[in-house]
Write a structure and sequence with these properties.
Blueprint lengths: L10 E5 L6 H12 L3 E3 H9 L4 H7 L2 H22 L10 E4 L11 H9 L2 E7 L2 H10 L12 H19 L2 E4 L4 H11 L3
Helix pairs in contact: 1-8, 2-4, 3-4, 6-7
Length: about 190
């Protein structure tokens, strides 16, 4: 259950492992609220002037990517604060999907924690490893491998490593393995609790 914040709902931040459906569901939630959707990966790529996460990892390294993530996240929350209407009753919550590693990025953690204090809800989307493997095997997209292990082993390892960060940051958790419309409805309902 989401704690009752002092500030009105400003937005929803979706966190979770890659392949859990943050972008797909985030776009649906944004349509539901007739609001904006942003993907942190796209913002970080724009910040770097790059077109591929995989290329950034291969040519510049993971640390450059993590620095770009935190810079883009900081800029996003600062821009959002400037765009808020004076009358919070007219507020349409923004939806932000954050890459799987960002909640474990030491530079991103305080930004996410501060966002919660200003009315952002942090929703952890989860899914069994076999579902993630199936989704990512069908379409790995622009995701860079983070270990030299096979995909299932990598996802299991990263899930274990990130679990404490995810659970510490999240206000609530939803199962992302269902149909995206069902997950969207579950997340949208959280905004009114």
């Amino acid at each position: 259950m989401i704690p009752s914040p002092a500030a009105p709902l400003r937005g929803i931040v979706l966190i979770g492992m890659r392949g859990v459906g943050k972008t797909t569901v985030g776009e649906l939630v944004a349509k539901y609220f007739n609001s904006s959707f942003c993907d942190l990966d796209a913002l970080a790529l724009s910040f770097l002037g790059a077109s591929s996460v995989r290329d950034v990892f291969q040519t510049q390294g993971e640390q450059i990517w993590r620095d770009a993530e935190s810079a883009a996240l900081r800029k996003f929350f600062q821009s959002d604060a400037l765009l808020q209407p004076q009358d919070s009753s007219t507020l349409s919550p923004s939806i932000l999907a954050i890459g799987g590693g960002a909640p474990a990025n030491p530079s991103c953690i305080p930004l996410i924690q501060d966002a919660r204090k200003t009315g952002w809800r942090i929703v952890l989307m989860t899914s069994p490893i076999d579902v993630l493997v199936k989704r990512l095997s069908n379409d790995l997209g622009d995701r860079a491998a983070l270990t030299e292990h096979p995909l299932a082993e990598e996802l299991a390892q990263l899930t274990r490593e990130r679990a404490v960060f995810y659970s510490t940051l999240a206000d609530t958790e939803v199962d992302g393995s269902s149909d995206p419309a069902v997950v969207c409805a579950a997340i949208a309902a959280l905004a009114f609790n």
